[in-house]
Amino acid sequence: MTDKQAPVPDRYSAFYWENAARGRLAVQACEECGQVQFPPNAVCESCQSQSLTARPVSGRATLYAMTVIRQAFHPAWKDSLPYVIAQVQLDDAPGIRIQTNIVQADPADLKAGDPLEVVYEQRGDVTVPQFRPTQKNGT
Amino acid sequence: MAFATRATAVVGVGYSTIHRETGVDSRPLAVTAAKQAIGDAGLTTADIDGIFEYPGQGTQIAVEMQRMLGIRDLAVFGDNSPSGPSGLAAAQNAVMAVASGACETALVFRSVTREWGQQSGKSEFPPADGPDQFLAPYGDYGAVIPSMGMRKYRRFVDFGGSEEDYGHIAVNARRWSALNDRAVLRTPITMDDYLSSRYIAEPLRLFDCDYPVTGACATVITSTERAADLRRKPVVVDAMAQGTGSRPSWSFADDLVFGGTIDCGNRLWERSSVTPQDVKVAELYDGFTHITISWVEALGLCGIGEFGDWVDGGRTIGPGGRLPLNTNGGQLAEGRLHGLSFLNEAVLQLREECGDRQVAGADVAVVANAHGPQCGAMVLTS
Q1: Closest approach of A5 to chain B, Cα-based (Å)
Q2: Which of B64, B87, B279, B360 is the most buried (most CB within 10 A)?
Q3: CATH number of the domain residue A116 falls in
Q4: Residue A128 to residue B138, Cβ atoms within 8 A
Q5: Parallel, antiparallel or unpaired: strands B281-284 and A115-123
């Protein structure tokens, strides 16, 4: 049985996955100009500073675009069909979108603009942030 | 003088056979297409002093083509990076090389196999590192298929419209391919066929995706001055442009729906001697139907978000329509030759050599390739 792939962090993204392992979501921000960017990069894409830091975000997000995957192109995902891949806008980091799965939801009930909240899936020794519709009573 | 600035023309086009066989070496296909393009121009291999191809894979590179064609030396050559506008990237490099005087006559080729174009059935995957670390762990496989599903979804959010808008591109491809002997898929399909084709990455359907084939095409480009003495009616490169869009990326660009197509389209018309209203035939990339719709709007053939009205139930773009589109059947039906085939078809239309599918009075054509961060487009005139 092939496993779902775990991310391979690098020097720029390590903070992202380390935060996820602790149940936190953080994005890369520039210490010079405040630019927030995703995915993490070697320099600030606005002012080219190399002083980049991890900025914690709430994990609240808004659904921007989604697709319901009906054909698995990786064998490990066959048993997960259908599943949702989405791009979400983080509520407290405007201007960037991250890509994720929407879980704990019927795909037919989802639509752009829906409020979402982060949840975490353990994948071996790596933790993968995913999102679900915001629960009425909070998390 | 070290550098020239001169007008360029396409003077030869060629194709290998196009089919669905697997296990084929792509290099002899490329040689077949190249020889045909060179012969079409009335030239010989000895006249070729530049070779460009996309994207530089294995032994299918410019100097290997040179070697197979027995060309003693090249003045300029290039294996354009995979970050360019697919097959058209190599043609644009050739235009720049000829225009600048880096070479006199350039050969361009793109050769693909069905296996290369096919996404299903893969069993080996590279580690999820680099940008993939934010995609693969979420089941984002099949190249840009999930991202195309999201583009189609988001287009509906931004502009409304219907699945039929997309279906018109798919149905149109088969209307034209029925008139093209080279096409691999020539059986007409109906809108019902489109709407009942299965979802791959909903709302992306099977019939939104192009058809992997084995085959090659090639193009010969030289100066308009030289072109005047050659065998065919020259097709002049009126303008060309590329575009990336801001924060270029297939997945994390600022503009998911259009990618770099709008920037590229605006740049193209700023440089052109003609306008979108002058276009008689459009050959616009259809690796996915979403890409074609983006280009129609980005090139100003209709307003942004207005494709659904403009296409008029498919009448606008079909045989006899106001703006015939993808008259070879595109990659949806002729087969996935990956870009250069759009240029070749435009050339054949402007030379009025398209037989049953000839667009009457075709004197201006627009060609575009790719989407996302890899956009390229050309205006051609006869």
Answers
A1: 5
A2: B87
A3: 2.40.50
A4: yes
A5: unpaired
